[in-house]
Write a sequence for this structure.
């Protein structure tokens, strides 16, 4: 099959973590089809994740602000590319529209493979707390492996080498200038305190208490990272702390610059978020704190140096597959019962220093 597949298109438009989780598949495809053109369709704001990936031939961009006319324009553009294989790893309305088979479809003659989302099994787990993942599959299937399974007809198998994030050359071995301008100190801890949904965020006061403990016990100072949506959370944390033991760079760095900071960290503490997967890509010592989401949903960190803390056995978990804006049970025990003391004890067991 390898001699007849010359052009492959992968569709995964967003988000940060989901795009990074495609990198094992991209690497395995490149090994299987070393001479093929492997293109990737992604939204512009996430293109940094793949721009320097040597296994990707071309990045195709779709800006959702262009709406349906932009999608039509993209479909016309794809028509002339004559792809032999389409891997739809997004499987939303936009990707379905692009791959819809018609006489004028850009993929009318291509082999089309799609991710299996297990929506019924997921519904039973989230809404009725009936867990069929382990009964059917033996163990939860992580999303990165689902992507590879979607391409299994191409003869692909996992290689066990983890995620990849290739930084631009100017950031490969250095940290951004803004970090070098911090006051003197051991700025070796990075915390990603944000997440898109409230029920995936550890409490700001818990982050602040952990920062104090790390400074008192190890003399470590903390860099807070995130996007524009995380500024309020990081500012809240800083207000609870004395000066100069923590600094926030939320919304001040690009994705690649933030990744460079994480790459150079001695320890990363993160919620279930895209930046957690960045830490996994660099195999940094990582503590990932999971609230309303669980392993069955596929997003546990893919790293040998990652430790997950969660309130196991809580009757209401998971309350959503992506997180919620508030705790539906009003107690938020999934996060409140994971205390700074518990995280400190886990850190003391790690050889991150």
């Amino acid at each position: 099959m390898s001699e007849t597949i010359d052009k492959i298109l992968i569709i995964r438009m967003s988000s940060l973590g989901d795009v990074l989780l495609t990198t094992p598949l991209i690497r395995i495809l490149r090994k299987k089809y070393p001479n093929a053109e492997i293109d990737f369709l992604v939204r512009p704001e996430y293109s940094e994740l793949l721009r320097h990936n040597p296994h990707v031939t071309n990045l195709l961009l779709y800006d959702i602000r262009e709406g349906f006319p932009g999608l039509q324009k993209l479909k016309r553009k794809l028509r002339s590319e004559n792809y032999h294989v389409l891997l739809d790893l997004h499987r939303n309305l936009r990707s379905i529209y692009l791959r819809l088979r018609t006489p004028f479809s850009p993929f009318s003659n291509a082999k089309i493979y799609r991710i299996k989302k297990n929506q019924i099994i997921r519904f039973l787990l989230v809404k009725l707390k009936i867990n069929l993942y382990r009964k059917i599959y033996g163990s939860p299937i992580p999303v990165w492996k689902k992507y590879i399974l979607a391409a299994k007809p191409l003869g692909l198998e996992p290689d066990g080498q983890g995620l990849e994030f290739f930084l631009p050359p100017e950031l490969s071995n250095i940290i951004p200038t803004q970090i070098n301008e911090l006051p003197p100190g051991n700025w070796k801890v990075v915390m990603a305190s944000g997440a898109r949904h409230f029920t995936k965020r550890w409490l700001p006061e818990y982050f602040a208490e952990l920062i104090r403990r790390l400074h008192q016990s190890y003399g470590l100072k903390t860099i807070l990272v995130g996007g524009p949506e995380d500024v309020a959370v990081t500012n809240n944390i800083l207000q609870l702390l004395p000066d100069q033991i923590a600094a926030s760079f939320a919304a001040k760095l690009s994705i690649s610059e933030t990744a460079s900071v994480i790459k150079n960290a001695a320890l990363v503490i993160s919620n279930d978020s895209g930046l957690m997967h960045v830490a996994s890509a660099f195999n940094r010592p990582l503590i990932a704190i999971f609230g309303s989401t669980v392993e069955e949903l596929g997003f546990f960190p893919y790293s040998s140096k990652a430790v997950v803390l969660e309130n196991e056995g809580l009757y209401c978990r998971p309350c959503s597959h992506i997180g919620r804006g508030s705790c539906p049970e009003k107690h938020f025990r999934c996060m409140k019962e994971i205390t700074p003391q518990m995280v400190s004890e886990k850190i003391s067991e790690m050889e991150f220093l």
Remarks:
- The radius of gyration is 21 Å.
- The chain has a mean pLDDT of 95.
- The longest helix spans residues 204-218.
